[in-house]
Amino acid sequence: MDHRAQRFYNSLQNKRVAFAGIGVSHTELIRQFAQRGLAVIACDRRSRQELGELANELEALGVELRLGGDFFSGLCADVLFRTPGMNWNHPGLRNFRGGGGVVTSEMEVFFDLCPCEIYAVTGSDGKTTTSTLIAELLRAGGRTVHLGGNIGKALLPCLDEIRPLDAAVVELSSFQLISMRGSPQVAVVTNVAPNHLDIHTDMQEYIDSKKNIFLHQNAFSTTVLNRDNDITASFAPNLRGRCAWFSLKGAVERGAYLDGDTLYQALDGRAVPVMTTQDILLPGIHNVANYLAAIAALGQSLRPETVLRVAREFGGVEHRIEFVREKDGVRWYNDSIATSPTRAIAGLCSFPEKIILLGGGYDKKIPFEPLAPEIIKHVKLLILTGHTADKIEAAVRSHPDYQPDCPQILRADSVDHAVGLAHAQARPGDVVSLSPACASFDCYPNFEARGRHFKELVNAL
Predict the structure, then answer these.
(1) In DSSP terms, which residues pair with 104 in a beta bridge?
(2) How many other C-beta atoms can be found within 10 angstroms of the C-beta atom of residue 189?
(3) 3-class SS letters over the chain
(4) Cβ pair 300, 140 in contact under 8 A
(5) Domains in the chain, start-ordered, CATH in brackets?
(6) Tell me, what's the pLDDT at 194?
(7) pLDDT tens digit string along 307-328?
(8) Residue 152: per-residue pLDDT
(9) Distance of alpha carbon 35 from the chain centroid
(10) Which of 69-83, 182-196, 386-400 has the highest mean predicted lDDT (pLDDT)?
(11) By the 8 A CB rule, do 319 and 444 touch?
(12) CA-to-CA distance for 318 and 27, rounded, in angstroms?
């Protein structure tokens, strides 16, 4: 084990360590801490019945369970690991810090202890695909890669497996970044647009959270910014290290850009053609941007032939304009990751024909007016469900370009009902896409569960 990690675990030997949330980022870590003989408290809003066998397993390891919505009441611990889903401004966390407790997170500690180079990606859209592309390109170039973070895998439990010459690729959400005071060697910001305004105090807090990915870098670091996005472009004066750009709209001096249908890598003013858009298996101009961001992040270590090979073979990440099946001449796509209007717009623009769109869901307090003209332009039938159905329909109908039944708008009680309506209305040659423009929390625990259910429904037609 790396000496830094050993010192960290030694420092916890006589302390009580609590974990707020028993989920993806914590379960394996709780097991490991308990197996190291540390005093561990696992807290969760769920009941013992909801946790099921996991509750018995953790108690058998000596873990103390504190379950239910009031688990902060009377909590006696020295260190608390916050799950990313817990608001940094939660009163329980404020009181814990005020009482002298240390609040940290799995990802903060991983950044402190990771022995290898870290590539980290954040943004409102595209961060999972960009993270995965960077990992695929590094692997294709011969590196051992550890991919995790917001993408669905905790990396701190894997620390013993990571070697100095490996690479860690980490997707970071604003919820993870808001409390982080460490930055990676290579940071990528894909874009910033309104998102998660149901959780963040305001848009400025959301933007400031994203900035933490580069604010704590040193002079030998690199940050990749989207030149086409006004907010990310404004970050450049705050960088301490090297800045690289990516752009769909014109040449950059350092980074990557699109000119016509050719993707170029820019190395201090020297442009090297890498591939064309036709070489990319993934659909949509937004995925061209994702490739440009990945190319810019890897810089001179990248060989164009490696990018070309990956681009022709990489089929994408689940729930991201994922082809489900063709039934009776109708193609069905799962774009459940589209939890914001900007993400849904990217999905709409990926198809040349007008589509049947399944939209709506949990309300993140993001305005839908920017989505309306794109729906009018790209959608022939709009089927709405969930808490935001009224808001989306109002935005579309009030737009000056809207004409009656262009698109036709239907309402559904559930995703099941929406799939049934789409199946009844679709004709050979049509495209149906679940691209909700909203989170899933009104009916599902996460967008993955929504996407899986949608695929089950479509495959059962």
Answers:
(1) 81
(2) 26
(3) CCHHHHHHHHHCCCCEEEEECCCCCCHHHHHHHHHCCCEEEEEECCCHHHHCHHHHHHHHCCCEEEECCCCCCCCCCCEEEECCCCCCCCHHHHHHHHCCCEEECHHHHHHHHCCCEEEEEECCCCHHHHHHHHHHHHHHCCCCEEEEECCCECCHHHHHHCCCCCEEEEECCHHHHCCCCCCCCEEEECCCCCCCCCCCCCHHHHHHHHHHHHHCCCCCCEEEEECCCHHHHCCHHHCCCEEEEEECCCCCCCEEEEECCEEEEEECCEEEEEEEHHHCCCCCHHHHHHHHHHHHHHHHHCCHHHHHHHHHHCCCCCCCCEEEEEECCEEEEECCCCCCHHHHHHHHCCCCCCEEEEECCECCCCCCCCCHHHHHHHEEEEEECCCCHHHHHHHHHCCCCCECCECEEEECCCHHHHHHHHHHHCCCCCEEEECCCCECCCCCCCHHHHHHHHHHHHHCC
(4) no
(5) 16-104 (3.40.50.720), 108-313 (3.40.1190.10), 322-459 (3.90.190.20)
(6) 78
(7) 999 999 998 888 888 889 999 9
(8) 78
(9) 31
(10) 386-400
(11) no
(12) 23
Q: Which of 289, 322, 285, 291 minimizes the C-alpha distance to 306?
A: 291
C-alpha 115/C-alpha 443 separation (Å) is 41
pLDDT at residue number 167: 98
Chain centroid, CA 141 distance in Å: 24
pLDDT at position 25: 81
Q: Is 212 exposed, middle or buried (0-12, 13-18, 19+ CB in 10 A)?
A: buried
pLDDT, mean of residues 66-80: 92
Using CA atoms in the order 196, 198, 204, 207, what is the torsion angle rounded to 10 degrees?
-10
